[in-house]
Amino acid sequence: MNQHLLYTKDLTIGYHGKGKKQMVVHSSLNVRLMPGEFTCLLGPNGSGKSTLIKTFAGFQKALQGSILLDNQYIQHFRERDLAKLVSVVLTDRTHAGNMTVFELVSMGRHPYTGFFGNLTRQDLRKVYHAIESVGMLAMKQRLVNELSDGERQKAMIAKALAQETPIILLDEPTAYLDLPSRIEIMQLLHSLSGGMQKAVLLSTHDLEQALRFADKIWLLGTNNQVRSGSPEDLILAGQFKQFFERKGIRFDNLSGTFKITNPQAKKVKVVGKGLEYNWVLNALRRNGYTEAPEASLSIEVRRNGSMNYLIRTSNGEGIETGSIENLIYQIKALEG
Prior knowledge:
This protein has 12 helices and 18 strands. The chain has 336 residues and is α/β, with parallel strands linked by helices. It has 2 domains: 6-245, P-loop containing nucleotide triphosphate hydrolases (Rossmann fold, 3-Layer(aba) Sandwich), CATH 3.40.50; 266-335, no CATH class. The chain starts with 5 loop residues before the first strand and ends with a helix. The model has no long low-confidence stretch (mean pLDDT 88).
C-alpha cells in the first residue's frame, strides 16, 4: 500500500468562542490521505467539513491531537515549507481584478520564488504545464474576470498544481457551478490525482458526483462519527442510510440515489419496459403515486410505430395519450 501523505491521531477540531472557551466540532478523528487517491468529504451542514479543511491547511490550529504531513507534525513546519506540501482551493469566487490566467497561476510559484517573485525558466515551464494540465493553455492571456465560474475554478486548480504540492485541499470548489461544470471539475480532479500521484481532498454536498468519481469517501457526521472507505464499501455497509436518511427520504443502495417515500401514495399498475417505462415511474412518484401490481388503475407503456401510453380504468375504459405530461393530467382528471 502507498505511504500516506497526511494522517491524524485522535484529532479534535473546532474553534475558540467567547472567553477562549473551546467549541469542539469533532473529536477522535483518525483519517489518512494517500497519494494517487481522490477523496471526497461529505456531511451535513455543521458537521465540520470546512473546519477540517482549514485545520489541515494550517489556517487554524487543532484543539487536541495531531496532524502529520509526510510523517512530521504540522506545527513544526514554517509557513513557506508548509506551502510546498499543501495547496488550497476555497469556495469563494476568485476576485483577481485585471489579472490574467497566466499571472494568477504564476502566484502558485510564490513558495519557491522568494520575496520579489521573479520567475525562472524552470518556474515558467511549471506554470505553463499547470495551465496545460487543466486544458486552459489557449486562455492563458485571458483576464480572470472574463472567465466563467467553471473556468475560474480550473484556473485556481492550475494555481494549486503550479504550487507543486503533493496534497491539494478543496473546500466546496463546485458550489457555484452548473451541473456540466461540476462534472468537468470532478473528472479533472480524479484524473490529476491518479496521473500525478497527488492526494486530493475535496469537501462537497454533491453525493451523486462523489459516488461517481471519488476513490475514497469520508462521511462526517454531527455526533463525532466518521466513516472512511470506498464508495461501494460504504454503500454495502449501509453507511449512507445511517448518515443521510430522514423521515420520508430513503437512500437506495441499488441506484445510489435518494428516494422519496410517501405512505399515503395512491396505487397504480404500470406495464412496460425500457427508458419510457422508467420515466413514467419517475413522473408518477413525483405526483404522489406508487406502483402496485394489484391496483385497479393501470398504465401500459407501448410503442406501436410511435410512443404512446394507455390508461385503463377499473371499468375497462381506455384512454390513450402521446406524452407523459398529458398522461399525468388524464390520471388526475379521472380522480377529480
